[in-house]
Design a protein that fits this description.
The complex is a heterodimer of chains A (about 325) and B (about 600).
Chain A lengths: L1 H4 L12 H11 L7 E5 L6 H13 L7 E5 L6 H12 L12 E6 L6 H13 L4 E7 L7 H6 E5 L5 H14 L3 E2 L1 H11 L3 H13 L5 E2 L1 H7 L4 H13 L3 H14 L4 H11 L8 H19 L4 H17 L1
Parallel strand pairs in A: 1-4, 1-5, 2-3, 3-4, 6-7
Helix pairs in contact in A: 4-5, 7-8, 7-9, 8-9, 9-10, 11-12, 11-13, 11-15, 12-15, 13-14, 14-15
Chain B lengths: L5 H4 L12 H15 L7 E5 L6 H11 L2 E7 L6 H18 L7 E7 L12 H11 L4 E5 L8 H5 L1 E5 L5 H15 L5 H10 L4 H14 L14 H10 L3 H10 L8 H13 L3 H21 L26 H9 L10 H7 L3 H27 L3 H18 L1 H10 L4 H16 L5 E3 L11 H9 L2 E4 L4 E4 L5 H12 L3 E3 L14 E4 L5 E3 L19 E2 L10 H9 L18 H11 L1
Classes of the chains: A alpha/beta (about 325), B alpha/beta (about 600).
């Protein structure tokens, strides 16, 4: 995938987040005293990329063996923290570059359970001689205070249009795709400031072009159906009062597409404005229902039941 | 009736009179015997067994055998370290004097119910007992119901553990007979047997019961278990109830296990059919969702409902908080306060039970997705969930446009052949839905040659292969829908099964039975009694039966004869009110004719 192919390999290649990158570069001048890092920012803004760049710079190209890269949302239980991270963090390692510590990159930390974070906090303290952490999250508020205070926090902004377009144009050039500025602009619009998604769109569109010419119509034609559309459809059915059909849709999303309950609720929240069937008066009620459902889902409840309850509530609002 | 309860009156005084548990008795006697020798054992004896099997009796009888005096302390009364030391202190010291006293009787400390020790408030209880065991110059016997918890590990090491088991019903019966003969009373044999059987090996409760029955003459005195309500009755009760109290009573009497969320899921499936008014439905669902949260807070393991999701199922390693369960049940009790629009029976008939089944239907897909996402996650530095949302749809889109290129990319992502197969089928899935569909005969169809992997997938999807004919067939015809979907997934193109139409000629591929009474042909899928018909799944039976044809008592016998088998008796067939069926019409027609 291009998202891997065109991932910057050193900090100098990173196009955006000038201040952030400068700050990190300054820290890297004294690698031995580098603190734990916490990167926060919206998806697709280069957090993981910067973390990998830092790892590469600290550890040299053979960094794979000296860096433990974990995705906290896949492995977010306390067991992983206790076993894998603790085990790794206590081994003293020497990188070719002379750095005498290991590096743990923990992606999507805000998805970790509180218990796991508490355990992590302790490990960060005890192993500070042998190990450094780079924590990555979307929402800084998802990280417990003690961990935040142990890290230098770097915020990542959403990409500026110019920066992103510049990067996309660069990709087009090296892939020998002839795409006008309008097309690139449209790709960026679709991605909502998420560079990863933008590159994905571009790649999919590029696959279907013949002779390297990419125009707007091809672009629109090959877009994968977003789950957003399915969710919007479900929401629409619900507020129109067709509970049964909306529920079938929900089953499809849950079962067939592997979307989690909370993602459905959040997706619905995004789509509320785009559905003309929801009147201004009922909008508030719809959003409140979504919020309530989101809360209930965090309480260890059954998604199936909670979402059905939500749809039932919505279909009542719609009938009013 | 004597003043002494029979349990006391007939408590054996010596080990020779004990009933059952012979090995345990021997072991205990061996241990007791050591105490009379010069070299005293260092360990205490721990008698473990369910209630009423004679642990205390064994200890007392054993002490009696070897002339010890029993000093009893109930561990559930005094459990703190201090209390135990206080109480044991004097006994211990006086015992040292006493042990070779003129009578030759030593003391034996009997501590009942030690598994009651060690709650939050009696920290140190077990430690105290251990010190006492170590220091004690006299034998100590402990009894417990259950010592499987690891907190008893130290205790087990300091004791010899003697396990006692439930008393066999036959022995219990003999005991009951013996006691009744002694008392000169008679109780009908079936009652005696019932008491012996229903006491589950608990001698004490059996004796208590038989005493109560014998003295009062009331055969049914033994408290019956509360009548348990089955699924249908529970639901009817719940949705007919006027208030929460009434509903709670229903819940108390149900046989559906409430510690799991079975009932929640059942209600969840039925609700849209019970309430068709949106406001009522919303209200009922709100109650259900609150009850569900209650269950979530209890934190017990739950059925998966819809979600087997490989992506977002948090693992729980907490201990269930059962004290919160009543809260959840109160919420659940409010689910049926509104007047239902359709009755429970109807809803149970028509509502598909989705919560259990959809999972199976999509399981294969989710596995495949999970596998693919794991690969992508590793190479793209993403989490599996991100891979699912951010990469897979694009990958599918690329496959749709250009399979060769897609394959190349997938291989770069370290995807395996099975992942690529999955992607190919995904990409062909959706747009092709509108295209021409292939129609297959579910009872025998041919498929193009395929690899072993795909073949195995087919077998798992509920399709069988007839080697001699070279044809595939659907194993269970009632699953046509789900098999169809998975077959299309696997083969990567839309495949439909021929479904016989309503007409007479299209009987192919349907389960068809003859009514054994009038020989008329019945298509099982169209018969409204198919749910309760025990025969439609058995292909070898030509005739079918249901309560519509079972008017006379000999019908079943006739029926089995006609089928040429001695079938097992069919399950009790529930009467069905909703008579709007083809078959019912036929019955009417038959009456006319």
């Amino acid at each position: 995938m291009w998202i891997e192919k065109y991932r910057p390999r050193s900090l100098d290649e990173v196009v955006n987040q000038k201040e952030t990158v400068e700050g990190i570069k300054a820290l890297l001048k004294m690698p031995a005293t580098i603190p734990h890092l916490l990167f926060a920012g919206p998806p697709g803004t280069g957090k993981s990329t910067v973390a990998l760049c830092v790892a590469r710079q600290l550890m040299g190209e053979s960094f794979r063996s000296l860096v433990l890269e974990l995705n906290a949302s896949d492995e977010r239980g306390i067991g992983v923290v206790r076993e894998r991270i603790k085990g790794f963090s206590q081994i003293i390692q020497t990188a070719p570059s002379g750095v005498q510590f290991g590096l743990v990159i923990l992606d999507e930390c805000d998805e970790m359970t509180r218990d796991a974070q508490t355990a992590l906090r302790r490990i960060m303290e005890t192993s500070s001689r042998t190990c450094r952490f780079i924590l990555i999250c979307n929402y800084q508020s998802g990280i417990i205070e003690p961990i935040q205070s142990r890290c230098s926090v770097f915020r990542f902004r959403r990409l500026e249009e110019a920066e992103a377009i510049e990067y996309l144009a660069k990709i087009c050039k090296s892939e020998k795709i002839d795409a006008g500025p309008k097309v690139v602009e449209r790709v960026f619009q679709l991605s909502e400031g998420d560079l990863r998604r933008a590159i994905n769109y571009l790649q999919v569109a590029a696959t279907s072009t013949k002779g390297g010419k990419l125009d707007l119509t091809t672009l629109e034609k090959v877009m994968p159906e977003a789950q957003g559309e399915l969710i919007r459809e479900m929401l629409k059915l619900a507020v129109l009062g067709d509970f049964m059909k909306a529920r079938d849709m929900m089953y499809e999303l849950l079962g067939k597409h592997g979307v989690s309950g909370r993602e459905i609720v959040r997706g619905a929240n995004r789509e509320v404005n785009r559905i003309p069937e929801i009147t201004a008066e009922s909008q508030a009620e719809v959003v409140r229902t979504l919020g309530e459902c989101d809360f209930r889902l965090t309480q260890g409840a059954n998604e199936d039941i909670q979402l059905s309850a939500m749809l039932a509530q919505l279909s009542m609002i719609g009938r009013k | 009736m004597g003043t002494v309860g029979w349990t006391e009156k007939y408590r054996p005084a010596t080990t020779a009179m004990l009933l059952g548990n012979e090995e345990a008795v021997e072991a205990f006697k061996g241990w007791m015997k050591q105490w009379t020798l010069k070299k005293k054992p260092t360990k205490a004896c721990l008698l473990v067994g369910p209630p009423g099997v004679g642990k205390t009796t064994l200890a007392r009888a054993g002490a009696n055998d070897f002339h010890f005096r029993v000093v009893e302390m109930n561990a559930s009364d005094v459990r703190t370290e201090k209390a135990i030391k206080n109480l044991l202190g004097p006994v211990r010291t006086s015992v040292t004097l006493d042990i070779f006293s003129a009578e030759g009787r030593g003391n034996l400390i009997l501590m009942d119910e030690v598994d009651g020790v060690f709650g939050r408030e009696d920290r140190g209880g077990i430690g105290a007992i251990l010190t006492v065991i170590k220091q004690s110059p006299v034998p100590i016997v402990l009894t417990a119901n259950d010592i499987d918890n690891e907190r008893f590990d130290d205790l087990k090491k300091a004791c010899i553990v003697v396990q006692l088991f439930e008393i066999r019903p036959r022995l219990l019966l003999a005991l009951i007979n013996h006691i009744l003969a002694q008392e000169g009373r008679s109780v009908p044999e079936n009652v005696r047997k019932r008491v012996a059987g229903e006491s589950y090996g608990d001698m004490r409760s059996a004796i208590n019961d038989i005493q109560a029955i014998a003295s009062s003459g009331a055969v049914n005195l033994r408290p019956e278990r509360t009548r348990e309500l089955d699924e249908k009755d529970t639901l009817s009760g719940l949705f007919a109830s006027r208030g929460v109290g009434e509903a709670r009573r229903t819940l108390n009497e149900t046989q559906i296990p409430l510690y799991r969320d079975e009932l929640l899921l059942l209600i969840h499936d039925l609700l849209p059919y019970l309430y068709t008014t949106p406001s009522k439905l919303a209200k009922a669902y709100d109650s259900l969702s609150r009850a569900d949260i209650g269950y979530g807070r209890v934190g017990a393991s739950r059925s998966r409902g819809m979600m087997p999701p490989p992506f977002n199922q948090p693992r729980r390693d907490t201990v269930p908080e059962w004290s919160l369960l009543p809260v959840a049940l109160n919420e659940l009790a409010t689910v049926g306060t509104e007047q239902v629009d359709n009755d429970v029976e109807y809803a149970m008939d028509v509502a598909p039970r989705l919560s259990g089944k959809v999972v199976d239907r999509y399981q294969y897909r989710l596995w495949a997705l999970d596998h693919l996402c794991r690969r992508i996650a590793r190479t793209c530095h993403l989490s599996k969930r991100k891979a699912l949302h951010e990469v897979v749809p694009f990958l599918v889109a690329i496959f749709r446009v250009d399979e060769e290129q897609g394959r190349e990319i997938a291989l770069n992502l370290e995807a395996e052949e099975r992942d690529i197969d999955f992607l190919v089928s995904e990409s062909k899935n959706r747009p092709a839905l509108k295209g021409p569909e292939e129609l297959l005969d579910p009872t025998g169809f041919k498929l193009p040659f395929m690899g072993k992997d795909k073949f195995i997938q087919l077998m798992r999807a509920g399709i069988s292969y007839d080697r001699s004919g070279g044809k595939f067939a659907v194993r269970r015809l009632e699953n046509l829908d789900s098999v169809e979907e998975r077959l299309s997934d696997i083969m990567g193109k839309p495949l439909k099964f021929k479904r016989p139409e309503q007409g007479k000629s299209e009987l192919e591929g349907k389960v068809v039975k003859e009514c054994y009474v009038d020989g008329q042909k019945i298509i099982c899928d169209e018969c409204d009694f198919v749910e309760e018909c025990p025969t439609h799944t058995i292909a070898s039976l030509r005739f079918c039966l249901c309560n519509q044809t079972l008017a006379d008592p000999m019908a079943y016998v006739n029926y089995t004869e006609k089928n040429g088998i001695a079938a097992k008796p069919a399950k009790a067939v529930k009467p069905v009110k909703a008579a709007k069926t083809t078959k019912a019409k036929r019955v009417v027609a038959r009456k006319k004719g």
